[in-house]
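Section 3.1 - Work completed
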Amino acid sequence: MSITLSRIEPEIYLAVYKGTITPDEFYLSFQELQQMIHISGDPWHVAIIDTSQLKQLPLDPQLIMQTIPKDRVGTIAVKSPMIAKVIGGIVAKLSKHPIYFYDSMDEAIQQAHALLRQKSA
């Protein structure tokens, strides 16, 4: 699979996208992430997606919206190609789910902490 998933700290999950991501891989990774979150017992979470090695992403906003669970506080993309930013913007508007774009992992983690603090307040 071209997607690697990990829990980098409580309530913060990282997905690293490499190469070309097929719709099946995209949906399968969502299912795996949901299983990781369930096992960890996190009541909500932030997803950070490292797209620095991404070549192609499924261009279907409906598919992407189906992979945004209600317990996700926000999605943060790091080093996204322009097409991913465009698709992310469409998904954010249609789903009313916040999607942020940053150039560094440090900025992404800071934003994740801010989102989780807001959720806890």
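Second construct:
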Amino acid sequence: MSKPGSDWLSSEISFPIIREVSRAVYNYFNYDDPYTKEESEARIKATAQAAAEAAAAAAATEKSNNRLKELHHRRSHSREEWLLLASGLY
């Protein structure tokens, strides 16, 4: 499970194996309510989508913060620009 010549685990190799072993053990002891591979894949997709949305929100916040810094350094801005910037519409 580790990369050759390294003491570190390779997550690309080890995490899927650990996930499947964990699912198999759970299903063995909980045969009346099994955890299927489709549920696992759906959770992985949902987690990836949530991470992408969080990254997009962070990028939008960064863009807004950069505009605020630009206006602050320029100091030649109108009251309307400040109001639009504060509301997130600018």
